[in-house]
């Protein structure tokens, strides 16, 4: 399964009307007319990223009636965390969720998804904006895991963490600012692990909402790990605890 490119004003308007999962829209620089402005307005309302690109970008689409605008539709359908969690509890499953705060690199997103599938994670949550898109590169890096594990794209991650807290989850912020190591925290119950942006980490506002802070102990003066590596370590610590507890 791959992302679909749609060409021209009418096709993109129809995609919005049909509720298709648009990853982004590209518009030729300097091109503005009432139809383009209408699409820009729809993009703002639905928080679809818009890129203004040089005219040369559209040369590869010369056989298409692109009208200076193209849209990219996600290769997956998104889920709602408020539907996923009750469903897991109804199945008698102890939920395990990954929440990814503003990751920007599709390779990190894909690598985390691949490990998540192996570690028994039930769903991945990403924000609607300021996040790496689930595109062909992400799916390829995930070795297809993003086609198998539910992905929830939510408007506000703070609201997600509040919801998970209310559902009895341990919401664990994985951050070097924590006092406790991951293996000192109980991770065998309903669990959400929150990982942050590659440069700035988890936002302070989101950390405040988390019920636990945990860090990965490191020696030899290494300050931090790549986020996908850190996520893998955190997931496998949780998986070990959950297996011991029979979760």
Main β sheet profile:
6 strands, parallel
Q: Return the CATH architecture of the largest domain.
A: 3-Layer(aba) Sandwich
CATH topology group of the largest domain: Alpha/beta knot
Strand adjacency order, main sheet: 7-6-5-9-8-10
Strand and helix order:
EHEHEEHEHEHEHEEHEH
Shape: elongated
The tally of strands reads: 10
Rounded to an integer in angstroms, the radius of gyration calculated over CA atoms is 20 Å
Helix content: 25-40%
Number of structurally distinct domains: 2
Query: N-to-C terminal Cα separation, in Å?
Result: 33 Å
Overall pLDDT score: 93
CATH superfamily of the largest domain: SPOUT methyltransferase, trefoil knot domain
CATH class of the largest domain: Alpha Beta
Unreliable spans are none
């Amino acid at each position: 399964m791959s992302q679909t490119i749609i060409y021209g004003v009418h096709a993109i308007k129809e995609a919005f009307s049909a509720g298709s999962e648009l990853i982004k829209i590209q518009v030729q620089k300097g091109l503005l007319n009432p139809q383009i402005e209408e699409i820009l307005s729809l993009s703002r309302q639905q928080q679809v990223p818009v890129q203004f690109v040089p005219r040369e970008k559209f040369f590869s689409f010369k056989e298409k009636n692109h009208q200076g605008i193209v849209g990219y539709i996600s290769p997956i359908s998104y889920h709602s965390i408020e539907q996923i969690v009750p469903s897991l509890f109804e199945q008698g499953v102890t939920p395990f969720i990954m929440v990814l705060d503003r990751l920007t690199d599709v390779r990190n997103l894909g690598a985390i998804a691949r490990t998540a599938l192996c570690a028994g994670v039930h769903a991945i949550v990403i924000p609607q904006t300021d996040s790496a898109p689930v595109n062909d590169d992400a799916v390829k890096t995930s070795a297809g895991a993003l086609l198998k594990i539910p992905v929830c794209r939510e408007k506000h991650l703070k609201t997600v963490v509040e919801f998970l807290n209310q559902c009895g989850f341990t919401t664990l912020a994985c951050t070097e600012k924590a006092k406790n190591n991951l293996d000192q925290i109980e991770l065998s119950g309903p669990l959400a692990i929150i990982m942050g942006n590659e440069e700035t980490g988890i936002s302070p506002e989101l950390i405040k909402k988390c019920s636990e802070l945990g860090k990965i102990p490191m020696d030899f003066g290494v300050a931090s790990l790549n986020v996908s590596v850190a996520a893998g370590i955190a997931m496998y610590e949780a998986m070990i605890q959950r297996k011991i507890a029979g979760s």
